[in-house]
Amino acid sequence: MRRFNAILSMGVLVLFLVHAIAGGFQLAGLIPGGNTVMQVLAWIMAGLICVHMVIGIKLTADTLRAIRRSGKSYFKENALFWARRISGFAVMLFIAAHIVLFLGKNEDGAFRLSYFGTLQLISQLLLVISVAVHVITNIRPLMTGLGIRSYGKFAFDILFVLSVLLFFAGAGFVIYFIRWKLI
After folding, report:
1. Is-contact 103 110, C-beta < 8 A?
2. Under 8 Å CB-to-CB from 133, ≥6 apart: which residues?
3. Which of 18, 30, 108, 179 is the most exposed place for a label (fewest CB within 10 A)?
């Protein structure tokens, strides 16, 4: 199941890359919104994320059962494990907010929301941060799950690309917020 989850996670990451880049361009006003292909890919990504979430919940439940059987939690020693689970939960909450927020309308080729204020901007920036924490804390198990033993040479490249992408996504939200306030 862990290998399947690793492959699933790679699919989510690829779709996330496409979604974040295209979404950033749309939010910055550089390309028009309402692309049907992008919407379909976003919903496929949402479905894959739901499967990933179910697997994560099952693996967490297995861990909690093992903790209960042993009588020892070793929370401090397993802080990274819990950071992965808590960041995943945060990502789920902020993805739900993202979906609700961005179910806008495509009017004359322009994407419109009903409202995008300070609270909405903060929620989307927290989405970017929670995704960063979740991916960064899960790079090692992802590479291990994919059978890559010496991932050190890939780690810098992955983190660099992820940093640039997340900065771009966050900047897209900020630019959209500024454009919203100016209109």
Report:
1. no
2. 83, 87, 90
3. 108
Element (H, E) at 110: strand 110-112
**Residue appearing with tokens 């697997």:** 55
Task: Break the chain down into helix, strand, coil percent, rounded to 5.
Answer: 80, 5, 20
Length of the chain: 183
* pLDDT tens per residue across span 65-111: 988 898 877 777 788 888 999 999 999 999 999 988 887 665 655 55
Geometric angle at alpha carbon 179, from 42 and 33, rounded to 5° = 30
Give CA–CA dist 25/179, Å, rounded. 13
* The two three-digit tokens of residue 162, written as one number: 């992820």
Two structure tokens written together for 69: 């059987």
Q: What type of residue is 34?
A: G
Residues with Cβ within 8 Å of residue 74, at least 6 apart in sequence: none
Instruction: Supply angle C-alpha 59, 62, 63, rounded to 5.
Output: 90
User: In degrees rounded to 5, what are phi and psi of residue 107?
Assistant: -110, 115
> 101: phi > 0 → left, psi -120 to 50 → alpha, else beta; which?
alpha
Residue 173 CA to residue 122 CA, distance in Å, equals: 9
The Cα–Cα gap between 100 and 98 comes to: 6
* Contact by Cβ (8 Å): 52, 5: yes
